[in-house]
Write a structure and sequence with these properties.
Blueprint (H helix, E strand, L loop, with lengths): L2 E5 L5 E5 L4 H9 L7 E5 L5 H13 L2 E5 L4 E5 L7 E2 L1 H4 L9 H8 L1 E5 L12 H9 L3 E5 L2 E5 L7 E3 L5 H11 L5 E5 L5 H12 L3 E3 L5 E5 L8 E3 L4 H13 L3 E5 L7 H9 L3 E4 L3 E5 L9 E2 L11 H9 L4 E5 L10 H6 L3 E5 L2 E5 L8 E3 L3 H13 L3 E5 L4 H4 L3 H7 L3 E5 L3
Parallel strand pairs: 2-15, 3-14, 6-7, 10-11, 18-19, 22-23
Antiparallel strand pairs: 1-23, 1-24, 3-5, 4-5, 7-9, 8-9, 11-13, 12-13, 15-17, 16-17, 19-21, 20-21
Helix pairs in contact: 1-2, 1-7, 4-6, 5-6, 6-7, 8-10, 8-12, 10-12
């Protein structure tokens, strides 16, 4: 099993290019199930979750071709014949549940295993099922599988009790081929949702309001193939921004979308970091003294839960006390125990963590529990005195493309160690 080994203490300097967004690419690749013909997707990151998605689509009968060097994927769904997504494929990542809506919309039937993924808390799919039921699907849970059937989906007015990104995406895809008009209220506003809507509209769908809390989808009879470029990854961008501030470095991040980063930029500026933005780039110069800042994770456009762990590392060496409140996932402080092993002073009470900044962290062997915790521990290693080894980095490979190579190019003493 691979490990990441880091010798801390080097400020990051230079230019880093951001990859395509995993959380945008996954639903966009899956949307190819909605129509026949060959779709071409560019700027697709080479990640474990992308490979898992392509394995699943191949199993369903699509013909998927990946050109990893060119970051391009071609998917032809003409031969789609299998409406079942089995446990062995779905358990690898929760986003697999996104095949449910397209399968029901196109084939009138689907059998999809209940999903797996990171152990960061309960992420129930009841809102997905409730919405499909309101659109006329008959839903049963049998032996760990969701079984859904519909003679034809019908437009409906659907209200989400909680903001759900994958629920919004699943029902939006299903609604593109439904009879009539579907309205999604209290919908997720994330850029990844807007990117999926843009893709579907390019395929011939009629979607309005993506990026707002009310999305309207007018059903169409069929969709046609599309060529589409995946948007930049705002969480990878934010991770490198925090790394630059944390190491008191000077990093220019290119190929990103600053308009997706308002909450992160605001909080980093409060820490004392200098941030300059351009149309597709951000430059971050770390402060001599890092000031403590409170954060509260919220649905977009609030501070993203996927940046909470990385920001916690920054606060662990900030001057003074800071409070981090996690409102999205109830189990997303698993990384705290590992940061404590490195000398961080963090007290957790319920969904809040009180961090008292310390002068320095100390290198130690640590173990990643999920994707963003992996990134958090790598960042901690960049500033820790001595050597840090992060184990179970297969989590990291799910969402960060060649992270250690990008940090090496910025001057970090970091390497991947392959056991055996």
């Amino acid at each position: 099993m691979d490990r990441i080994r880091i010798e801390g203490g080097r400020p990051l300097k230079g230019v880093v290019e951001i990859s395509g967004a995993k959380n945008a690419a996954l639903p966009i690749l899956i949307s190819s199930l909605l129509g026949t013909g060959c779709n071409v997707y560019r700027n697709v990151p080479d990640l474990r979750d992308i490979h898992s998605t392509l394995d699943l689509l191949n199993h369903l009968g699509a013909d998927c071709r990946l050109n990893a060097a060119a970051h391009e994927v071609t998917i032809c769904a003409d031969g789609l014949i299998h409406p079942e997504a089995p446990y062995d494929l779905v358990r690898k990542m929760r986003a697999s549940i996104l095949v449910l809506g397209p399968l029901v919309a196109r084939l009138k039937t689907a059998r999809v295993s209940l999903p797996g993924g990171c152990a960061i808390g309960a992420r129930p799919i009841n809102l997905h099922l409730k919405g499909l039921s309101e659109m006329g699907a008959r839903i049963e849970l049998q032996h760990g599988y969701v079984e859904a059937k519909a003679d034809h989906l019908k437009g409906a007015d659907i209200y989400f009790d909680l903001v759900t990104v994958t629920g919004t995406e699943n029902l939006m895809m299903a609604a593109t081929l439904a009879d009539g008009t579907t309205v999604l209220r209290n919908a997720a506003r994330e850029p990844e949702v807007s990117a999926l809507a843009d893709t579907l509209n390019a395929m011939g769908a009629r979607i309005e309001g993506a990026g707002t809390s009310v999305i309207t989808i007018h059903g169409v009879e069929s969709l046609h193939p599309v060529k589409f470029r995946i948007i930049p990854d705002r969480i990878e961008t934010g991770t490198f921004m925090v790394a630059a501030a944390l190491t008191r470095g000077d990093v220019e991040i290119v190929g990103c979308e600053p308009g997706h980063l308002d909450a992160i930029i605001h909080k980093l500026r409060l820490t004392g970091a200098r941030i300059d933005t351009g149309p597709d780039r951000v430059r971050v110069i770390g402060p001599e003294t890092i000031h403590s800042v409170d954060i509260k994770t919220l649905p977009y456009p609030g501070f993203p839960t996927d940046m909470q762990a990385q920001f916690m590392v920054l606060m662990s060496v900030a001057q003074g006390l800071s409070l981090i409140s996690e409102t999205i996932f109830e189990n997303r402080f698993i990384h705290v125990s590992e940061l404590r092993r490195m000398g961080a002073d963090i007290t957790v009470s319920g969904n809040a963590a009180l961090i008292k900044g310390v002068p320095k962290l100390s290198g130690a062997p640590v173990m990643a529990s999920d994707l963003r915790a992996s990134a958090c521990l790598v960042l901690a290693g960049l500033i820790a005195e001595g050597v840090t080894e992060v184990q179970r980095v297969y989590h990291l490979d799910r969402g960060y493309e060649a992270m250690e190579k990008k940090f090496q190019a910025l001057g970090a003493a970091i390497e991947r160690v392959r056991d055996g």
